[in-house]
Amino acid sequence: MQPLTGFRDFLPDACAERNYIFAKWREVAGHYGFVEFDGPVLEELDLYKKKSGEEIVRQLYEFVDKGERAVALRPEMTPTLARIVAEQHRQFRKPLKWFSIPQVFRYERPQRGRLREHFQLNCDIIGEEVPESDAELIALVIDVVRAFGFTSQDFVVRISDREFWTELLKLEKVPPDRWEEMLQAIDKSEREPREKTEERLGKLAKPVFEILEKGGESVKLNEIMGNLRMRGLADFAKIDVRIVRGLAYYTGIVFEVFDRAGKFRAIAGGGRYDQLVAQLSDNAVSLPALGFAIGDVVLGEMIRGNATARAQMEKTITSERDVEIYVVVAKEEQRGNAMAAIQQLRDSGYRVDYSLASAKIARQFRLAEQTGARFAIVFGDEWPQVGVKDLTSGKQESVPHDKVPSHLESLREP
Ligand code: HAM
Question: Residues 402, 412: contact at Cβ < 8 Å?
């Protein structure tokens, strides 16, 4: 039996890659002073029906549980975060800077870079309205992607402002209940034939296409670019009002990250959602908020497809995974002494392996090489001396068994 379409098994190599990605995500979020939180995988269906917007609602994994509750697997983390914050924000100093790494589920048409489950790093700032916080968040997403070895040649953050478009909608006297539909049409305009967008936009098509063709900017967008310039990160970003974002709750600055070669769908996306917390709060707590999520699927493909990023990942994975010491039991009578040494070496923090079943010496050495071990320690006739063999150079020395730890320490690379 295979896993369901769009779902993945994580065999050890894939799991090591996933852990590598998560470790970098945690590290960079930490550099920016974000702390980790989590929430439930399953939530009330209504949380998403009301808050996520049409597209995600169509993709929900939803069912009625045994207590007759309508529930859904989380398709994203933002509604959960807003729910938690609406309820519990009083306990925390503002602004909150929280991150999480949820697995999320969307019934999408599986395609390159899009599956039916994925992991996302979410970073959100709650309780801050100054544009410096938008710039801080964009700097963070840039640094998250840079951490994997990518440069401004490889990716770009396209930054936009929903207000730029809502101002136009106001000017054109479009009733507010049609705004979401218009914004979605603009969001999709890059991926859809022009006629389809024109049809969706109606009389708005002309002014919208004029803006899309000549580009747009605003004071706030220029301010954010200025902030990124101060950090030396301006080459990683550009103003691009074609970005609108598919989710319903965004209210201001929005952005998406793309590979420069244009091979993939968005690597990351986010923006400001100043009304969501209030909408989920019984006593109308109003808290400005902004955040982004970056998925593991496109990022993983990009890492594997880029020589520098791939080499960096493989080096880290190998150094963290390979066994350091392989113990060779050359004489079965030595198994007890070998076990005592194995226990001691593991207690001292070495990664140690050995053959569980008795095996010929040559086979044990082959296994040692396969595990990537740097040293073999041979327990045989020489006891109480043991052989310490450097498997890279092939050099073997005879060492008193109780001096093995200090001997290994002296051989360790500085
Ligand atoms: P989103 O744009 O829907 O935003 O997803 C963020 C990222 O998750 C995408 O850029 C992509 O890398 C990844 N992603 C989305 N769908 C899939 C899929 N089917 N398969 C693989 N990867 C996928 C959100 O989810 C917002 N909640 C982000 C946010 C946080 N906004 C504010 N705070």
Answer: no
